[in-house]
## 1
Amino acid sequence: MDERELIARVRAGDGAAERALYDAHVDRVYRLAYRLAGDDELARELTQDTFVRAFERLGSFRGESKLSTWLHAVATSVVLNGLRKAKRFRQRETDLDEATGISGGPPPAEPDLKRRLAQAIDRLPKGYRIVFVMHDVEGYTHEEIGAALGIETGTSKAQLSRARGKLREALADFAGEWVS
Amino acid sequence: MTGDRFERLLRDAAQDYHRPPETPREEMWRRIVAARARRQQHVLVQHRWLHWGLGIAAVLVLGIGIGRWTARGPQGTETTVGRVPNEPGTLAYRVAAAQYLSRTEALLTGFRTEARPSTPDAQFAAQARDLLTTTRLMLDSPAARDGRLKALLEDLELVLAQIAQLPAGGDKEDVQLITQGLDERSVLLRLRTAIPAGPGPVRMQGAL
């Protein structure tokens, strides 16, 4: 079944087509929600809300972009609004100052790098974090990110570059150890 | 390790950032289906109320119109509604008016009951706005020629306007003033007396 036919059938209330649409996209939506929320229950809620809203609004989808692009725009809007409301991710305790105090000794073990990287990602400005997670972690293209967030492709690239710069800065001592 | 290698290391390490578990497809699908069913039901209930409200409004407008026409009589002689119970136009008018009075009574009874322990729900304001329009139609109809009914309709207009203007969440003092007014002017008692008695929509007693 091609995309146009799938959309037509969903609009006509075909339950099997709805399920097919869900199956085709749910993994990517849930993964993004989980990566950004860091909380399983919240990620489930956001994924559900995304699909409930998408099924409700599919009638307004004019086919000017791919369905996946439109659906991910719905998903990012739901996820970002949900995160704003929940504020759970903001309450995450991170302490970069403590992390940057590590120096000397043998090169740190990889698990420590991962822990500190996670803390550093959490501390990124929201826009940088979202673009970094979407591009470097979940593999979205800059075009997809631009369409989903409603920003220019160039803005997405610039934010990614700044995000990486901030992470390098936050993990400078690691870089020193590993680069040398 | 070069800068590029460090970049690669970062990217690899980032894969563990909030690493998602396996997608709980079935559970989420069940919840999506349930959420959509709940929304659908909510919409249906709203539609049903809307249709019902529109139906009542249509019957009222039609009934009041016919009532006004028939009240003048064939030679332009005016009669009161109660004196021509067997004319079909009057019958339609009385059915519509009885429905209006019953709805108003239900609203005011509910409002008064809820006003005692807490501030009443915002839905009362919405219903009051709806009934207020009908009250003004009634005041402009043959019913207003009956002094007793006219006085009741004027009191209802005031009370409904007060309820309609209650702010969301309600103001306890305003609510008290409204219930005081209801009690002092025995609005509910007069309203119940005005509603025709009997089981069917076409009743032969009461003020109508």
## 2
Amino acid sequence: MAQKAGQLRLLTGLLCPPIIGLGDADEDGGRTDIRVTTVRSQWGALVSTFERVEVAAWRAITSSHVSIALLAALLIVTLLGGLLPQTAPGVQPGSPRYQEWRGQVRSPWGTVADALEALGLLGVFQSRPFYLLMAIVAVVAVLRLASLWIPPWVPAPPRRASTRDFTLSRDKAGAWEEITLALRGMGLGVVRQISHGGAEYAAARRVGVARSMSGLFYLGVLALLLASAIEWRFGWAGPRLELALGETRPLGGETGLAARLEQIDLLPLADGTLQRFDSHVSLIRGATVEKTVTLGLDRRAAYHGLSLYQLGFGPAVRVSAQKASGQPLRMQRTVGDTSVQRILRLRFSGRQQEQLVTIPEADLVVRLVYYPALPIRGFSTRALHIQLLRGSTGQVQAEQFLAENGQVMSDDVRVDIAFEYSVTLRPEREPGLPLAAFGGALIMLGLVGYLIWPTREAWLIVRQENQSCTCQIIVSRGNAGASWFIALVSNLSGGANG
Amino acid sequence: MANLWGITDSDLRVAIGAILALGAMLAGWWTHRETLWRLMLATACAFGLVALINVGMYSNHRPFNTPTMALAAVGIATGLWGLVHGPLNRLAKVLLALAVALGLGAFLLSPIVTWPGAHRRGLFFGLAEIAYILASAALWHGVISSVAFRHNRLGATTRSASGAALLLLTVSLLLYGIGAQWAWGAYWSWEPFACWWLATWLAVAIAASGSQHLGWASRCAVFALWLAAGFALLVLLGSLSLVQWLGLNGQY
């Protein structure tokens, strides 16, 4: 063990420079591991305490420990999101949509869902601890950005550091010239330097683009967080709209628009999945069609700052009825739009798998139940159960299971069924989207910059002793074996020997 | 298209790739001629790649919903990393060829093991999966290098593997975000599948930060690299099935 007696002043501190001492040390093959501590200020106890707190905070914010702790906290939250059901963004607890979702969760999760809800684990990403975590991430990102882009805001040397000592046979000015040259060779420059007690203290780090590029990562993180805040405050996401062909529904919000599904184009693959599913939708204000847009599985449409997305598609059927003589019969739904029509288009969704239609002229009720699959009846894919009931008695007149287009007969009435699709749309206003894209690009650039020019920081102490100068270079222990540090020491040691 | 014995062109290509990879293993072990090893492994990877692209284009199979396809893709990409990145010693050559052979062998034995349920489709989701596989392969290439070069080059190995993986995972997350924005209008909505994707990024970032703090050549850095590589592969093989088994898919 060797006792190091240096005092390192100025290397950090935003308002007033603290004094940093070098504590106990372990020698290890020319390299010395030291413990960096703060020591009492010459300006009194109060200032000393402030300095210590400032150094500790600054060191903590820029330390790897804080990075790892924040990443670990985010990892835990993210894993919770990957393992437990979470409420969709914007769904408030207690709202009808939340109750509906809660019912869906209770089905597979049972009473565990109640326990998770009581613990607040069903809304991790809308909880206060999560917002607090995001706020801490934002603060740390701002301070790290400042430490990178404001040269004098040098982080304090890490508490556990390594140092190398050597002697230069020159006066102080000559020694500094040589040190500066060696630092420049490693892409470093002195960003802060003062004299104190007969010694020169300096902090060196990367200069120019090499230092600034890494900061883009933090700027990107801030841009993403800001974009989320803008979306939360000023953005709008309308309700999910399910539309069958020819159906019109309002978009909601203050848009004053309604959407009508005009046409569907689809291109199936050999395995039954769809390569393309495009829907043509008219945007209607009052009685006027303002624009007809085409949406696809990866294709959105925009209209006056409003984005329209096709979230998916689902089953629907076209129902018509006629007498044996060919005379068409009029039908009407029992709920919702009860207008009388000759052809009805009915949607089936997770919420509604059953539809009822009446044919008043024939005293018939058509009951349709949709099954995504019905193995018990031998249907491995979709199946439709159709029952024709006597309207006055409720007696079943005819029933049939259909997997393809078909018809069901009862006396002299024929009901034709044709399978179709419905689409699910969602309108949105996304004011934060450009900023989010900008943030993503900055994160990418910052990461590339960091990988090309990883962080390099060193702290130096130079003292004049007779005709020579003793020099001490301090780096974090993780950098003690780095090639740049070894090369720097080698260059300076060569100079010392020469 | 399958022939009389039910063997498809893709099966044939994968089989040839696996045999060539086994040949590369032997070449790497018995001879010092690196050119022969490179030629055999590159051809094996080419056969495997063509087969996977063919399967991916004409079916609903993707690495995230077909675990054997994922193994094959990671194996091939690990081999390609080895061919491009180097340097190589005898053990590294054998292990890289073994990775390709194991991946292709797994795909050959059960090419149609597919997790049930819907999977994201689209150009950007596909590109995101490719970036994820390259990242996972970069980590496994690092693992192989750390085994093959136990006594030297450890720092360079862990740093380059972690750096490349982090960069590629960032690319994959950004592509996923673009795909999600185009598909359902939300670049990030904390949906469970995306959470697993982000978890991999965080795990690799933790490993990289820890390694930088403790020194890239430290034993802890190597251990962190192994953990990150294992986590990335587990997410690739099992995240979709886990999400569907837990009934989380489709909550959004």
